[in-house]
Design brief:
Distance between the termini: 14 Å
Order of helices and strands: HH
Radius of gyration: 18 Å
Strand content: under 5%
Largest sheet: none
Number of helices: 2
Number of strands: 0
Shape: flat
Structural class: mainly alpha
């Protein structure tokens, strides 16, 4: 993605949010099913970002 910045972790903060798990049982019971795989969704999101991100926003 062309990210050229140093990532610095603040070790005084907790290690992030507690683990969250998605539960789609309610959606599934209503007949909803995903139309694309997670891998394909991430791929599409990445390509959308590459096409639409404005470099000035992140500099």
């Amino acid at each position: 993605m062309g990210f050229k910045r140093e990532i610095v972790f603040n070790t005084s903060k907790p290690e992030g949010t507690m683990r969250k798990l998605n539960d789609f049982s309610n959606l599934n019971s209503l007949g909803w099913r995903p139309t694309i795989t997670l891998k394909e969704g991430v791929k599409r999101a990445y390509h959308w970002y590459k096409r639409n991100a404005d470099e000035r926003t992140y500099s």
